[in-house]
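Minimal example, chain plus adenosine monophosphate.
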Amino acid sequence: MRIVLLGAPGSGKGTQAKKLTEDKRVPHISTGDMLRAAVAAGTRFGQRAKSIMEAGQLVPDDIMLGIISERLAEADVKDGFILDGFPRTRQQALDLEELLDGLEQPLDAAVLMDVDFDILMKRLTGRRTCSASGKLLNVYFSPQAEIDACLSAGGELIQREDDNEETIGNRLDVYRSQTEPVVEFYRKRGKLKTVDAEGDIDAVYQRLLAAL
Ligand code: AMP
């Protein structure tokens, strides 16, 4: 399985990719997670990425190509991969196509996780990670029992630095202007599948499996 998950910030790409990676046993490659690791490591590159991410802007395409080509050269991707958060521009989509053609491993599909813009805002502003369990929660949508379980285990509800309203607004604008063309790119290639990504996580997952 070689797929790309597309969708606006908050469309649930990461959540669904985590489920799929466990079921299908192919690596989940999230460029956002890779960049956050670089930020946490405090490298010079990480410091530059931090300010770009906090502004809700995109890390330049040439840097992203370097990161993704190194990752796709690793041994664990030989049986496939789930790309989450890449490509995010038309140029990245072209770069990925060239890279995968060179490896003779073309994509099977690009799956668009389709969610209404109003719901995205609540998903993003309400999103938290439990510091004790690492579980993703949402203060608007998660059952109170799950939130209480985190707090009573001594956990805190941590908000991502780029999940504040101003950055979220920028990230959604960037998605519209720079990433929506990627959806068209895959539609023209006949590789696009669209999944209704609203509602319950497990129901969305079943629809994702059916689309694949
Ligand atoms: P994510 O966790 O996928 O929402 O990514 C968080 C942030 O990392 C984005 O808002 C961008 O600043 C940066 N980022 C992640 N993936 C890419 C990419 N493919 N191209 C450029 N910037 C990226």
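The longest strand covers residues 109-114. The chain has a mean pLDDT of 94.
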